[in-house]
What we know:
Layout: E1 6-11, H1 20-31, E2 35-39, H2 44-54, E3 60-64, E4 78-80, H3 90-103, E5 106-111, H4 116-127, E6 131-136, E7 141-145, H5 148-154, H6 159-183
Parallel strand pairs: 1-2, 1-5, 2-3, 3-4, 5-6
Antiparallel strand pairs: 6-7
Helix pairs in contact: 3-4, 3-6, 4-6
Amino acid sequence: MLRTNIVFLSGTRKVDRLPGEVLELLNDLIDSKAVFIVGDAPGSDKAFQKYLAKREVDNVTVYFSAPTIRGNIGEWPSQFVDSGLKTKSNAMHSAKDRKMSELCTQAIMIWDGQSAGTLANSIDVSEQGKICYLYDFLENELMKFEATASLMDYLGPFPKVTSEALRRLKRDRRRQKKAKVKNDENAILLF
């Protein structure tokens, strides 16, 4: 039985164009009939959406966590992921990212050297044993990470943003765990 290839597309809000190497990889995945999941943010999410719409790709789902979707260029199916938060913050929007990290088989991330959210997504995907392609805009380089250790080695020169990414990921996982316990009718609460 063939497993569906589900590709999580994400990146910084500060970059709104797709580099050539990313387009080549994306074209190969489109040709292989991969399924794409992407967020609704401006920047990289919007750039991925524009390209998928231009290529008339149908197998796309747009994920969002705010009360209303921010962008769905191709008018594809959308999926709301409730963060349980009322404020529009990175914590609210990261709920959809954790869900896409869980669902994907691999990811393509565009990073500007500053986005802690993009790094949190990359680390989350790699910690689940999935391939993460990271395009570094500072170095104009597309890298493929098949293990968390190699990704963390690469991030060594970026301790501040890596620390923030890990802090956010820990926060998100804590919220996920709390939400699962709260939603489990059979859970025994010890606090």
